[in-house]
Specification:
Number of helices: 4
CATH architecture: 3-Layer(aba) Sandwich
Order of helices and strands: EEEEHHEEHEEH
Structural class: alpha+beta
Distance between the termini: 23 Å
Oligomer: single chain
CATH topology: Chemotaxis protein chec
Number of strands: 8
Mean pLDDT: 92
CATH superfamily: Transcriptional regulator MraZ domain
Radius of gyration: 16 Å
Largest sheet: 6 strands, antiparallel
Shape: globular
Length: 149
């Protein structure tokens, strides 16, 4: 995973946050976060987690949008105004800021889900129905989305 072009966050991992509000990043994924990690509010009830280099790519795309459009300004406020630059501690844990935990309704058990170039952190309680919905609708969604190979 050392090469930036080989970045792929896949899978689902269950964890418990500690008393200080920290969660471990899965060991096999940690190396991608050595240069920094950015957490922000997800569009769904989750926390999105980017390696710093991937966050910078996203930031470039968002800031390239025309500033004169109100939806672009609101999108930037929502993304950047709820973002927290962090670092992993020696045990590979990252603190989950209280505003993000509140947004994602995270209390104790979490599920970390791969999103290719980012991760999502969900409360276990909210992830289970979301996963069931994805499982139920995946075929229908795939038919609506054109994927070019």
């Amino acid at each position: 995973m050392g090469e930036k072009s080989a970045l792929m966050f896949l899978g689902e991992y269950g964890y418990v946050i500690d008393k200080k509000g920290r969660v471990a990043i899965p060991p096999r994924l940690r190396q991608e976060f050595e240069a920094g990690i950015v957490l922000s509010r997800g569009f769904d009830k989750c926390i999105i987690v980017y390696p710093l280099h991937e966050w910078q790519k996203l930031a470039e795309k968002l800031t390239a949008l025309p500033f004169t459009r109100s939806n672009n300004r609101r999108l930037n406020r929502g993304i950047f105004g709820n973002a927290f630059p962090m670092e992993l501690d020696r045990q590979g844990r990252v603190g989950l800021p209280l505003p993000l935990r509140e947004h994602a309704e995270i209390d104790n058990e979490v599920v970390i889900v791969g999103g290719h170039n980012y991760l999502e952190i969900w409360s276990r309680e909210l992830w289970l129905p979301e996963k069931a919905l994805v499982d139920e609708q995946l075929g229908q969604i795939a038919e609506m989305v054109e994927v070019r190979g």
